[in-house]
Specification:
By secondary structure, this protein is an alpha/beta fold. It is built from eleven helices and eight strands. The protein binds 2-phosphoglycolic acid (PGA).
Length: 247
């Protein structure tokens, strides 16, 4: 039985002071045993948010890692550093990183492998552009992204897949629940091909792209959608309402 997982992706928002103030006001309302809740915060907020969440079931995640443990990689943070700091999750392959920072499928695969090696759960993002959807190649594209991200990743490892159509991110344009369900079902099919149906059945698949408290219920009710990766709405009280829809 898959647990619902709701993750907030704060992107490059909130300094440590703002982060702890916000988390202190919402943490009691979003703490849950029934649902996995994760806050993926900017690197500079990780420690203060982690400390603020002591005594709750809410987990903290980073938004990126590098795929080496240490060394001359100016500006980067490793999975090992996260693990040593009791950070539990990391977003890998977000479309903003793929597009703005030229992250390739190969780099994403290396990051996934490293995160898992250090016991960090990667939230692996996939999703098509508007043009790909208009050209009806979205399924083929997403199948390829999943296969490439999971090269040499065992089916017994813990990871999450987030389906985020690029045209729905930060645009206010959500995929309809049935569009999102269709792709998430396809993703589960690919996972069943790579591993086996029993393993695929256990993997959490999120939808992301303009999730808010108004559309969350319908999206999360879909059989292959196990929660959401929430950007803009995770920065406000709407995040509390989204979680109430999920539990
Ligand atoms: P959004 O972002 O909810 O603001 O569309 C989602 C994401 O990029 O993870």
């Amino acid at each position: 039985m898959r647990k619902t997982i709701i993750a907030g992706n704060w992107k490059m928002n909130k300094n440590p002071d703002e982060a702890t103030k916000f988390v202190s006001t919402i943490k009691n309302d979003i703490d849950s045993n029934d649902c996995d809740i994760v806050l993926c915060v900017p690197a500079i907020d990780l420690i203060s948010v982690r400390d603020c969440l002591i005594g709750t079931n809410i987990k903290v995640g980073a938004q990126n890692i590098y795929f080496e443990d240490s060394g001359a990689y100016t500006g980067e943070i490793s999975a090992k550093m996260l693990a040593d700091s009791q950070i539990n999750y990391v977003i890998v392959g977000h479309s903003e990183r793929r597009q703005l920072f030229n992250e390739s499928d190969e780099m994403i695969n290396k990051k996934v492998i490293k995160a898992i090696a250090h016991g960090i759960v990667p939230i692996i993002c996939v999703g098509e552009t508007l043009r790909q959807r208009e050209n009806h190649v979205e399924i083929e594209f997403i199948r390829m992204q999943i296969k490439n991200a999971l090269i040499n990743v065992s089916g017994t490892s813990k990871f999450v897949i987030a389906y985020e159509p690029i045209w729905a991110i930060g645009t206010g344009k959500t995929a309809t629940a049935s569009q999102a369900q269709d792709i998430c079902a396809e993703i589960r099919k690919v996972l069943a091909e790579i591993y086996d149906p029993n393993i695929a059945d256990e993997i959490q698949i999120q939808y992301g792209g303009s999730v808010n408290s108004k559309n969350a219920k319908e999206l999360f009710a879909m059989p292959d959608i196990d929660g959401g990766l929430v950007g803009g709405s995770s920065l406000t009280d709407d995040f509390v309402s989204i979680i109430k829809e999920a539990i």
